[in-house]
Each structure stands twice: as structure tokens, then as C-alpha cells.
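Please describe the entry underneath.
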Amino acid sequence: MSDDETTEIDDTAGIAAVRLHRDDQPDGYRVLVDRLWPRGVAKSDLGHDDWDRDVAPSDDLRRRFHGGHLTFHNFAQAYEAELRRSDAPQDLLDRFAESGKDLLVLLYAAKDEEENHALVLADHLRELKEDA
């Protein structure tokens, strides 16, 4: 078992953020939520249903966070604000509902499984589902 697999996958409300390099990938409606395609991963090998760049952090926000100019807390607040101004999260939930699958799997390439944009996105999508 790799270190990745020691972190339990949280699938609260039928939404899970999962590092794409994990060996224990859950089934479901699988969507890559990174703005850039991950290095070293062939599109044919990912086994995804969709690639949704519109729900990823803006290029500017992503660069500031990865450049060390923002703490994760500040990044998460700014990203949440971007998500609130966008129709893309609801559009993603609509496509998930149309898929007929029970689990929305948000795939991301970041190495940190505890502080990454997919976790912020998952929380935002759960809130949207609750409010619907």
C-alpha cells in the first residue's frame, strides 16, 4: 500500500476528491478538476468521464498559491469566492446528475491530499447540493 492509500477517501454527500495517482480509485462520474493536464499521464490512461477546467482555480490564483504567496487558508477563501461567482460548479453537478452515477469523483494531481483545491471544490459542491 502506498502512502496515498493511508488517507481515507471522504465521499460525504456522494462527492469525493481523489488524487489521480492513488491505486484505490473509486468508481463513479470521474472528472479531472485541474486547469492543466497532469504531466506524465496519458489521456487514454486516466479513465475519466470529463475534464472540467472551468471549476479549477484561475491561473493567477493557482500561480500565487504554488509560488508560496498565499497560505492554504487564504487560497481557499479566494478560490471559494471564484466558485461563488461562477456557474461552472452547478454545471458540473448537473452533468453528474445526468450521468446516473452514485459518486462524483473529483480527480486532481496535487501531491498534498490535505490542502488542495479539489477539497475546497468538494466542500463547495456539497453545499450547493444541500441548498438545492
Summary: Residues 3-131 form one domain. The longest strand covers residues 15-19.
